[in-house]
Design brief:
Elements: H1 6-15, H2 19-31, H3 38-50, H4 56-64, H5 71-82, H6 88-99, H7 108-118, H8 124-133, H9 140-152, H10 156-164, H11 171-183, H12 187-199, H13 206-219, H14 222-234, H15 242-254, H16 258-267, H17 273-285, H18 289-301, H19 308-321, H20 324-336, H21 343-355, H22 359-368, H23 374-386, H24 390-402, H25 409-422, H26 425-437, H27 445-457, H28 461-469, H29 477-489, H30 493-506, H31 511-523, H32 527-539, E1 548-553, E2 556-561, H33 570-586
Antiparallel strand pairs: 1-2
Helix pairs in contact: 1-3, 3-4, 3-5, 4-5, 5-6, 5-7, 6-7, 7-9, 9-10, 9-11, 10-11, 11-12, 11-13, 12-13, 13-14, 13-15, 15-16, 15-17, 16-17, 17-18, 17-19, 18-19, 19-20, 19-21, 21-22, 21-23, 22-23, 23-24, 23-25, 24-25, 25-26, 25-27, 26-27, 27-28, 27-29, 28-29, 29-30, 30-31, 31-32
């Protein structure tokens, strides 16, 4: 083997699959004197940095034994780490390169800039200055990378300045600026740029389309999305590109057109884990949770390995359906396959167990997380509040503050809910004030709703009314609904009458609002007013929304809709209900008819 030609060594490198093989080939390079040859060492470094699995530590060891690495080898290290899980090492190698007197070229800075925005380093302006001093600020590759780095780092002002200074902008420059706008929640600006790009006749590629479709999904403009879809189909490439296909699925789903998303998905000849995850997430965002679980099952049948976003969406669907068996199975699957429990997955698991009634299991997941940011803390605080553990929820909030974790707006929704469930009015008032005074969080309509619920449950109806009257924003139907519920609890039918009528005025086509007010009139035996509500509802053509519930049995989700007999075993179910009713009557049970809803269908 020692007599083999260098090209044969390179052929061995291409067939290398393990660290043991790599070390043997490296030994051959050392023995044959190729370990200081720039070309061959670049090849072995490239293999270590870019072939999966990446042998990053071994690449560093090899590099440190090269006597005088040239710019190309330095760039290989900077580039490799810039796209690795350790982008901060790109910055370290760039600094070493400068200290060793090696001058960066037009390839060094783009890789460095990628590492800078990935690590959220704040010395981007300093590197920009170095680029200008070196005369590389007119290099197209470097300029485009600067636009991307500033935009991805959140500095759109600087990104616009660099973009505006480019005389002849190519596709990459336009796409970098569009993508930057979209990433910084300024999708409309990005879409306007795309239109300008089209008018100027600049060529559009797959990366541009993906960024634009993401912006369309953010603004919910399905008609623009359909136009872009049609435009790209005419190019004859969309059906073959998995990334564009995934972006189309995501766009339609975010615009609320899940059936169109599914149609695009079914037409894609190539699907990866991201494609499946996007469709599942789309169903979850559209509250089609059963469909999301069905797609997940299809994904497993196709032997596509789910990723972390997949499991996050699936756990959300399980939480909304109360599908605890499927949720536990997902948790076991993650453990069995040693999937890394990141904060997003941990939070989703806590939320799922909490909403499925398993608060102790939720707390076990919470305790198992080695690192916790505000999201798992908030999920656990909300979960305890949801289960009526007010004091435990508030105690956990205190622990969170002692650990130095800064609460967000959602955290305070959980805290105020805990105070509401526990009847802790003074604590609720205190935390509501602390939101803005101590933590600089401006209360939203949801926080006001929690306070109205807290005050209302405790019987402070006038204070709740005054709070609504003095809200800095327009009270939502949910806020008024919380006050109406309090009026029902404390039988303040006079105030309830005012609030109920206002709710109908706010949502004239919401059948539940009419039912609530009719219910109140029936409880207070105001039968004429109740009949008037029925006539008002019928006159406006408002139809009752049938009640719906789910139950999970042996991992299967069963859906029940009021007065619906579509279930395969509906006859047996109704026979069982009739039997239970007979047994209840025989046992002397008499239902309290007073709080029943007024029959909106009775004539």
């Amino acid at each position: 083997m020692l007599a083999a030609s260098p090209n044969q060594y390179l052929s061995l490198l291409q067939k290398c699959k393990t660290m043991a093989h790599l070390k043997q080939i490296h030994c051959l390079f050392i023995i044959t004197g190729l370990s200081q040859d720039t070309f061959f060492m670049t090849k072995i470094l490239h293999f270590c940095m870019f072939v999966r699995p990446r042998y990053l530590d071994y690449a560093s060891l090899i590099f440190d034994r090269i006597d005088a690495p040239d710019t190309f080898i330095w760039n290989t290290m900077i580039r490799g780490f810039s796209i690795s899980p350790q982008p901060e090492k790109s910055i370290v190698y760039f600094a070493r390169m400068r200290r060793n007197g090696v001058i960066p070229d037009s390839h060094s800075y783009p890789f460095l800039l990628k590492a800078l925005y990935k690590t959220k380093e704040e010395n981007l302006n300093q590197i920009h200055g170095q680029i200008v001093k070196s005369g590389l600020d007119f290099n197209t590759f470097v300029r485009n990378s600067l636009v991307s780095a500033y935009a991805n780092g959140g500095d759109l002002v600087s990104a616009w300045q660099v973009f505006g200074g480019i005389g002849e902008r190519d596709t990459v420059a336009w796409t970098a600026m569009i993508d930057g706008c979209v990433r910084n929640n300024r999708a409309e600006e990005g879409l306007n740029l795309f239109m300008e790009m089209r008018m100027l006749g600049v060529e559009i590629d797959e990366v541009t389309i993906v960024s634009v479709l993401c912006g369309v999904g953010m603004v919910g403009d399905v008609w623009l999305g359909r136009w872009i879809h049609g435009f790209y189909v005419l190019c004859g490439r969309v059906i073959w590109d998995v990334f564009v296909g995934g972006a189309l699925v995501d766009m339609y789903a975010k615009c609320g057109y899940c059936d169109d998303a599914r149609k695009v998905f079914d037409e894609m000849p190539l699907k990866n884990a991201i494609s499946w995850s996007v469709l599942i997430a789309g169903y979850v965002q559209s509250s089609r949770f059963k469909d999301a679980l069905v797609v997940f099952q299809d994904m497993l049948l196709e032997e596509v390995v789910p990723n972390q976003p997949t499991f996050t969406s699936v756990l959300t669907a399980c939480a909304q359906l109360g599908a605890i068996d499927q949720g536990r199975w997902v948790h076991m699957y993650m453990d069995k396959n040693k999937l890394e429990m990141n904060l997003m997955l941990g939070t989703a698991l806590i939320d799922m167990y909490s909403k499925c009634g398993c608060i102790d299991e939720a707390f076990m997941v919470f305790q198992s997380l080695h690192r916790k940011d505000v999201y798992p803390w908030t999920a656990m605080i909300n979960g305890l509040a949801m289960h009526g553990h007010a004091l435990r929820s508030l105690d956990l909030f205190s622990r969170m503050l002692r650990d130095g974790v800064h609460p967000n707006a959602v955290t305070f929704i959980g805290v105020l809910s805990a105070c509401s469930h526990g009847g802790l009015v003074d604590h609720g008032r205190m935390h509501f004030d602390y939101m803005s005074q101590v933590y600089g969080i401006k209360p939203s309509v949801e926080h006001y709703g929690c306070m109205v619920d807290l005050l209302g449950r405790a019987g402070h109806l006038e204070e709740a009314w005054d709070l609504i009257e003095n809200m800095p924003m327009e009270p939502s139907a949910g806020v008024w609904g919380a006050l109406f519920g309090a009026c029902m609890i404390h039988k303040d039918f006079k105030l309830g009458d005012r609030v109920g009528k206002h709710l109908i005025k706010l949502q004239p086509h919401h059948s539940g609002r009419y039912a609530l007010l009719a219910n109140m009139y029936s409880i207070s035996q105001k039968w004429e007013e109740a009949a008037h509500i029925r006539k008002l509802m019928k006159g406006k053509g408002v139809e009752k929304t049938p009640g719906c519930s789910w139950i999970e049995i042996d991992g299967a989700i069963h859906e029940f809709i009021a007065l619906d007999k579509s279930h395969s075993k509906s006859n047996d179910i109704y026979l069982m209900l009739d039997g239970i009713t007979i047994q209840l009557k025989a046992a002397g049970y008499a239902p309290d008819a007073a709080p029943l809803l007024f029959d909106m269908d009775s004539g």
